[in-house]
Give the backbone structure.
Amino acid sequence: MATESGYSARYEQALRLATVAHRHQNRKGGDLPYITHPVHVSVILLRYGFPADVAIAGLLHDVVEDQGVDLAQIEEIFGAYVAELVAALSERKTDAQGKQRPWEVRKQEALEHMRLGSPQVAAVKAADVLHNARATALDARQDGPGVWQRFTRGPVALLEHYCQIVEIARERLGDHPLVDELADAVEDLGRAIDEVS
């Protein structure tokens, strides 16, 4: 009887693509390599039992948006399903003239993609925000109110956006424990905002 292997060549390929794509990028306001974020998103998804393709989308969820990796390349290597997930999770940061699009517009579009996308899109977005909320709360408690200068909008707008994501995750995923953990992380971020403001 064949047993499943712990190693996945496909996952390795995705990890390498994400690592190379993000190699010159750090987390906002620090010197921590950015790759720690998509890896953590992917680990969260794996720990909650999501399939490999969803975890791979977690690894790749920012490579198109932040690093300009071609979606066609993702589709060629990982298939249409992974490419569709990554596309649904990628914000369009600039308009046709290369001008920065407003934060509010981009975030509203992201909420719509989550609301209208598959439950797997909602799961990746939930894991994404779960990690961001935990990391931001930790940074706020360690670094103080200066942490908010890293963000386009202040802590109140960020928290409101994350609360909307919790609501949509609950609509799309029901009582999944990932949603419970996400809600707890966002509540804790709210406490961290109060503590350091």
In short: The chain has one domain: 9-196. Residues 61 and 86 are 5 Å apart (CA to CA).
